Amino acid sequence: MVQHVLLVGVPMDSGKARDGCLMGPDAYRTAGLAPALSGLGYEVTDCGNISPAPFAAETPDHPLHALNETVAWTQTLFDCAQEVMPQGVPVFLGGDHALAMGSVSGVAAYAASVGRPQYVLWLDAHADFNDLSTTDSGNLHGTPAAYFTGSGDFAPFPVVQHPVPHENICMMGLRSVDDLEGRRVAATDLQVHDMRDIDENGVVKPLKDFLARVADNNGMLHVSLDVDFLDPSIAPAVGTTVPGGATVREAHLICEILHDSGLITSMDLVELNPFLDERGRTAHLMVDLCASAFGRRVFDRPTRSFL
Question: Active site includes 271?
C-alpha cells in the first residue's frame, strides 16, 4: 500500500518580530520536497498554503507580539490538522514554531478521537516552554510546548482539550533555555536530552528508548523539527541561531532511526527563514532530513555544491 503524504504550507510569521519565515513553505517546494518524497514511493499531495482565521487588529503597545494573529493561526491549524490526519501523514511546512500550538494540539485531538496516545519528538535548541506570562521577549514561538501540554494560562487561545502528557514528549538538542523556563521544565516529566547529554551519550539510545515507549503504547508520533536544532554553520537560515547544534550526521541518523521505527504520523518543519539562507543550503538540508525520515538511505544522499 502506497502511503500518502500531505504537504501543508503554513506561511506563519507572527510568532516573532523578525520577518521571513512566511517564505519557508515555498522554499521547501523550490528545494524539491515533493519530488524527493514521491521518488521514495509516496503519494504526495501539496495542499497549498493555508491562511489564518480572521483576527482583530493588534494593539501596538501589547507586550505579546502579534497575539491575535497567532491565536487565529492556532485555531486554523487545529482544524486543519484534524482534517488531514485521516488522509495520511501531514507535513506542516513553516512558518515559525508557534505553528506547533495548532498542529500538535490538532493531531493530539485526532489521536484521542481514535483512542491512541499522542507522543511528540521535539528537535530544537529551545524548549519553547514559556507561557504568556513568563516570556521575556513577547515572542510566541517560545510558547508552543507549554500550550499543547496545557501548562499555564493561555487565554485567549483556544482551550486545549487533549493536552499531550509531559512524559509523552522527548526534547533533543536543547542548548538555550531561559532561567524561569528551565525551572518550569525541571518541574515536569518532560524527557530532556540537551546537547551536553548528546555529546556524552549520543542520540541513538535515548531516541530508541523513547520510540520503544511509543510503539509499546500504540502511540501516534509527531516530529517537530526546528532549523535551529542544527548547528548554524550548516543551517544558517534561522533567526534564532545558537552555536553547538546537531551535526549533519547526527540529524540524518535521528531521521533514519525515525523511519526505521515506522512510527511517524505527522511532522513540522519550522523556522526556515530563506532571507537568511546561503544559496538555499538550509532549505536543501531540511528537505534531505525530511527525506531521510521518510526512507532515504545514507547511500542515496545527493551530492551538492554551494560554491
Answer: yes
State the DSSP string of 153-180: --TTSPP-SSPPPGGGEEEEEE----HH
User: Which pLDDT band holds residue 198 (cuts at 50, 70, 90)?
Assistant: very high
For the record, the C-alpha cell of 123 comes out as 528537535
The count of other CB atoms within 10 Å of the CB of residue 177 is: 22
Report the candidate in 60, 56, 32 with the shortest Cα–Cα distance to residue 46.
Answer: 32
- The edge-to-edge listing of strands for the beta sheet with 4-10 is 43-49, 4-10, 89-94, 264-270, 220-226, 118-123, 169-174, 191-194
Sign of CA dihedral 245, 247, 250, 251: positive
Phi-psi region of 218 (alpha: psi -120 to 50; beta: other; left: phi over 0): left
| Cell digits of residue 70 | 497567532
4 catalytic residue (yes or no): no
Annotated catalytic residue within 126, 193, 252, 284 = 126
| Residue 61: active-site member | no
% of the chain with per-residue pLDDT over 70: 98
Q: 69, 268, 271, 288: which one is catalytic?
A: 271
Whole-prediction pTM value?
A: 0.96
> Which residue type occupies 2?
V
Active site residue 136: no
Question: When comparing pLDDT for 237 and 306, which is higher?
Answer: 237
Active site residue 284: no
- Report how far residue 174's alpha carbon sits from residue 177's, in angstroms, rounded to the nearest whole number: 7
Q: Does the pLDDT value for residue 298 go beyond 80?
A: no
Tell me what pLDDT residue 161 has: 94
Q: For the residues 64-82, what does the mean pLDDT come to?
A: 97
- Helices assigned H by DSSP within 85-203: 100-113, 144-148, 179-186, 195-201
Beta strands 89-94; 4-10: pairing state: parallel
CA distance to 120, 172, 173, 196, per residue, from 202 (Å): 19, 11, 11, 9
